[in-house]
Design brief:
Aspartate Aminotransferase, domain 2, single chain, 17 strands, 430 residues, four-stranded antiparallel β-sheet, globular, seven-stranded mixed β-sheet, alpha/beta, Aspartate Aminotransferase, domain 1
Amino acid sequence: MTDLPPSAGAFSAQALAAEGSPGEAFSAAELRRQFPALSQQIHGHPLVYLDNAATVQKPECVLEEMWRSYTEYCANVHRGAHTLGERASLAYEHARRVVQQLLHASSPEEIVFVGGCTAAINLVARGFGDRHVAAGDEVIVSELEHHSNLIPWQELCARRGARLLTIPLDEQGQLQMDAYARLLGPRTRLVAVAHVSNALGTVNPIREITRLAHDAGALVLVDGAQAVARCPVDVRELGSDFYAFSGHKLYGPFGIGVLYARRELLEATAPVSSGGGMVEVVAAEHCSFAPVPRKFEAGTPNLAGAAGLGRAIEWLQALGLERIEAHERELLAYARGRLRTFPGVRLVGTAERALGVVSFVLDGVHPHDISTVLDQGGVAVRAGHHCAQPVMRRFAVPATVRASFAAYNTRADVDALLAGLAQVREVFGP
């Protein structure tokens, strides 16, 4: 068998040597050198990238691995019995094992590659929900959810005649857990919640949410898109039945994502896309599906996406998720402190347990105008409802400015944000 293309091992050792041991803080300023996109100028100013909740920039090692997938092992996965085909298949399955290790799943067979977090949630809603949710059953979501973890459940309930219930938020942007406990009942079939809010940064108490759901006989799907790059995730310790995330928010490529599910749940889920690669025996009248997870991976797999995602995870683990979590918590605390002193700023979402995101409004200035002025100074933030309109309604605002952080951000980036807000005040007045 042809050996797997060299892994990120050599890079990982180099990264650790450069950045310190796992128990030590790392230099975000030094880390920036590994990200080509961060060296560019925007409108004559150095780029200050604070839109990481939308997508993070990619380190050189990920870009190199994607290039290698097209130049050294470009072939269809699980198809050819030639050298390039063997290399491609080994690289693809290596990436699956890397994801398994990241999530502490029981086996690689519990990892399904999909197009992204949205595709993963839709797979569960249609492939599992349509089979196991009946008229009169209940699905619980929260007021905090990204539309990707809300609309599929709205549609499922409409198709099946089920009820959709919503966990409300408190004034800090935290789930009201007493209300959640009251929503659970004998007809609850599934609870779908974010691990970390993309709009507010709130970290939800997933263990408690899962424990209460399981006590009621319900399953739990966790949208982990904002969590996996910011903190360690152990799906078995959390008790997650389903866990979904996207590669591009994990320092990996666009167009690749992951659905984790316990094997027995995958066995009980129907494929929602059919064709080549996901079958074993095909006759004119019927077919038999391949074992999990391949029965969910119809067509030509995204080899470059999987390879890049695997390398991104290896890079991330070498840096240390505990260190990244500590770094982002410190940066968030600094940003909140600075913003609270700026005249006219109101923070939207002030949960004590939060990661990576600070949302705010500025009196008298629309968030879109703030974003435009900041961009002229090279500062990239997001302005809008962040695909979380129920959150905006809860806080009675049409939109917020969202600054979101990654491992490569520094206090200097926060200072640049505040300097940009001073320019906004000059443009629009006090």
